[in-house]
């Protein structure tokens, strides 16, 4: 019995060691988890933010097969049970928007040449703000019932300039847009731009802007940290892109004064030609997500001022080095007198780690350990029971033979 107890203890030790070996201590990436850029294995063409040649961005011949990580992170399925942005107009200042693009048809108004989105970037962003996903409802935007007012802030090739952005801001303000998303970033402050932003804010618009431009395809030397415009204007929500682990993507241009981070890598949306999908990233993508969140809040809380909406988005953000956008919390959280700063006063930065892959590994490891333990237990039972059975048989045979030692004596 003592030997059996020792063997059973050994089984328990083997099980513990097997489980420890099967589940590393969280340092190494797990197979099947998100890639460093958040693509999660979806092989799709990349949407450009500007063009270097004369040809427009070709139609994508591929479609996404699943929901991307960004929509899961923003918890859009839960958000849409409380707000879809219905009744809110979002002015999108970028490369334009195709009003007949999949998932946007019937909800896009355009000004000037904005219906000609040769680059495709603006249409891609519009899908993140207010798209229904077309034939892929799992790729819906943050506020799928909101309306888009498409405005050009660039030339046809996607190069931005202060003049078009200022003109677009004036048009958005005149149209009464409740949310204005400026998805271009300018390297220098412009007096006319400053006045246009102030005018839009006085009119009651929530102004959201990309914290930095997309990095150029090729650049030499280090770019010093700086502020880009209009993200640097007072009262404008400056939004940067983030990876699934909460950090900024490699190659992001350095900047300061960021208010929020939102998904900005490996994000899936549609384009202006066909019904295929593209991958996009960067601060403009993050700004589009934040603009959609602002629309969802404005629809759920129509009495709130623009400043109150902006405060709510910041106050309900997930605490981290750069607070992470949380549209569901922004719509559903009841803010008290001291709540606004509670989430920002977390004890150190917090990073959300995706655990789905780890859970699968733990499950498989648990099954293997249980199966192995059962096999070892069976072996031990056999090792213990079989010799005892043989001993009993030998003893029984010995009692019937009086000539053997220990045999039974005949009765007299």
TrEMBL record:
* Span of domain Peptidase S8/S53: 85-323
Q: Spell out the Pfam families in the cross-references.
A: Peptidase_S8
> Which Gene3D superfamilies does the entry link to?
Peptidase S8/S53 domain (3.40.50.200)
Please list where the region (Disordered) is annotated.
33-69
What domain of life is recorded for the organism?
Bacteria
Q: Which PROSITE patterns match?
A: SUBTILASE
Membrane-spanning segments: 365-386
Q: Which InterPro entries match?
A: Peptidase_S8/S53_dom (IPR000209), Peptidase_S8/S53_dom_sf (IPR036852), Peptidase_S8_subtilisin-like (IPR050131), Peptidase_S8_subtilisin-rel (IPR015500)
- In the UniProt record, the signal sequence range is 1-27
UniProt keyword annotations, A-Z: Hydrolase, Membrane, Protease, Serine protease, Signal, Transmembrane, Transmembrane helix
- Family per similarity comment: Belongs to the peptidase S8 family.
Task: List the PANTHER family hit by this protein, alphabetically.
Answer: CEREVISIN-RELATED, PEPTIDASE S8
The name this protein goes by in its record: S8 family serine peptidase
Task: Say which species the protein is native to.
Answer: Streptomyces marokkonensis
């Amino acid at each position: 019995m003592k030997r059996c107890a020792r063997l059973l203890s050994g089984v328990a030790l083997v099980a513990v060691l097997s489980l420890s070996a099967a589940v590393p201590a969280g340092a190494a990436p797990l197979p099947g988890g998100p890639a460093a850029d958040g693509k999660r294995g979806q092989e799709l063409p990349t949407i450009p933010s500007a063009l270097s040649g004369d040809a427009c961005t070709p139609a994508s011949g591929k479609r996404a097969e699943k929901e991307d990580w960004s929509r899961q992170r923003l918890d859009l399925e839960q958000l849409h049970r409380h707000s879809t942005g219905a009744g809110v107009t979002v002015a999108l200042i970028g490369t334009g928007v195709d009003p007949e693009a999949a998932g946007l048809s019937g909800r896009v108004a355009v000004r000037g040449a904005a219906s000609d989105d040769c680059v495709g970037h603006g249409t891609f962003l519009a899908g993140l703000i207010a798209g229904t996903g077309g034939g892929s409802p799992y790729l819906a935007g943050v506020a799928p019932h909101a309306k888009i007012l498409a405005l050009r802030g660039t030339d046809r090739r996607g190069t931005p300039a202060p003049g078009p952005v200022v003109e677009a801001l004036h048009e958005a303000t005149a149209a009464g847009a409740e949310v204005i998303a400026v998805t271009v970033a300018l390297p220098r402050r412009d007096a006319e731009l400053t006045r246009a932003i102030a005018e839009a804010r006085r009119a009651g618009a929530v102004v959201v802007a990309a914290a930095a431009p997309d990095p150029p395809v090729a650049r030499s030397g280090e770019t010093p940290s700086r502020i880009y415009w209009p993200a640097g204007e007072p009262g404008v929500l400056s939004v940067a892109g983030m990876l699934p682990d909460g950090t900024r993507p490699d190659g992001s241009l350095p900047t300061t004064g960021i208010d929020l981070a939102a998904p900005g890598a490996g994000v899936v949306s549609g384009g202006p030609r066909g019904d295929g999908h593209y991958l996009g990233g960067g601060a403009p993508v993050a700004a589009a997500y934040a603009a959609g969140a602002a629309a969802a809040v404005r629809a759920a809380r129509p009495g709130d001022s623009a400043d109150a909406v902006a405060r709510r988005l910041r106050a309900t953000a997930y605490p981290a080095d750069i607070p992470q956008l949380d549209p569901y919390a922004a719509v559903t959280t009841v803010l008290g007198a001291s709540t606004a700063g509670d989430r920002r006063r977390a004890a150190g930065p917090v990073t959300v780690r995706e655990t789905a892959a780890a859970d699968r590994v733990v499950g498989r490891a648990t099954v293997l350990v249980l199966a192995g333990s059962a096999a070892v237990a069976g072996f031990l039972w056999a090792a213990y029971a079989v010799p005892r059975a043989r001993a009993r048989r030998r003893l029984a045979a010995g009692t019937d033979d009086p000539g053997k030692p220990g045999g039974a004596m005949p009765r007299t």
